[in-house]
Design a protein that fits this description.
The chain is α/β, with parallel strands linked by helices and about 260 residues long. About 45% of the residues lie in helices and about 15% in strands. The protein is globular. The chain binds farnesyl diphosphate. Belongs to the UPP synthase family.
Length: about 260
């Protein structure tokens, strides 16, 4: 398989990690993995650092996990980077979070282009600062022909807003004759959501010990396997990601048993 030849693969990883990767790739790898990257603030607090230091460290983990997901053959990685509720945070923190996509893409985009990763985003763009949007749009344009991993950022995303917008659009389309309400079913409704081009997540990971969805992909997670871990996002390692995939695969195997 092409991914096994991925040049990102580290030459010096411990054999157990390498073996676990090979084992994972010999089974069904979750096609779409969504992550609620939580615990940045607590990670920073534990080290007497400002909260934003946790976000910055979290950004480095995004890079690591993107590489690994691509290497394993995951098709879509959706990351909850900023929720519609996150605007309530102190302005300084919001400003910092809005600068992270620029910093991340500023240094990482050439590698994403090279490694066939396609960057997408879901969320309402109208409230995003121009500089944030510019960076994300550039990444989307530069990677639009790529056919490998889809790296989907949920940015100014909220599931309830998403569903409400979809309902309004459905009503409009029924009114103007584009849609017959008798034809409205789950598949058609899904096509009105921000994830219309994506399959539903197979696996949801949430870090930091919080066991809730926080307005994330409420419709799309209906049949998803959940993996919760106490690990704070900045501490989330390749091993943790692999563990989550292994747990997913063990559950799949049970379901498939006769
Ligand atoms: C939640 O942790 C995390 C966020 C609201 C932001 C997540 C953003 C990143 C991990 C970086 C994103 C990177 C890119 C490339 C866009 P929290 O701050 O709520 O943590 P706490 O619950 O410990 O306070």
């Amino acid at each position: 398989m092409l991914n096994k030849l991925n040049p990102w693969k580290s030459q010096n990883q411990p054999s157990s990690l390498r073996d676990r990767k090979i084992q994972i790739q010999s089974q069904e790898v979750p096609s779409h993995i969504a992550i609620i990257m939580d615990g940045n603030g607590r990670w920073a607090k534990k080290r007497s650092l400002p909260r934003v230091a946790g976000h910055h460290e979290g950004m480095k983990v995004v890079r690591k996990i993107t590489r690994l997901a691509n290497e394993l053959g995951v098709k879509t990685l959706t990351l909850y980077a900023f929720s519609t509720e996150n605007w309530k945070r102190p302005k300084m923190e919001v400003d910092f979070l809005m600068k992270l996509p620029e910093e991340f893409l500023g240094s990482f985009l050439p590698e994403l282009v090279e490694e066939n990763v396609r960057v997408t985003m879901m969320g309402n763009t109208d409230q995003l600062p121009a500089h944030t949007l510019k960076a994300v749009k550039k990444a989307m344009v530069d990677t639009k022909e790529n056919t490998g991993l889809v790296l989907n950022f949920a940015l100014n995303y909220g599931s309830r807003v998403e569903i409400l917008q979809a309902v309004k659009q459905v009503l409009n389309d029924c009114e103007n004759g584009k849609l017959d309400k008798e034809n409205l079913n789950e598949e058609v409704f899904s096509s009105y959501l921000m994830t219309s081009d994506l399959e539903d997540p197979d696996l949801l990971i949430r870090t930091s010990g919080e066991i809730r969805l926080s307005n994330f992909m409420l419709w799309q997670l209906a049949y998803t396997e959940f993996f919760f871990t106490d690990v704070l996002w900045p501490d989330f390692s390749e091993e943790h990601f692999i563990e989550a995939v292994e747990v997913f695969q063990s559950r799949q195997r049970r379901f498939g048993g006769v």
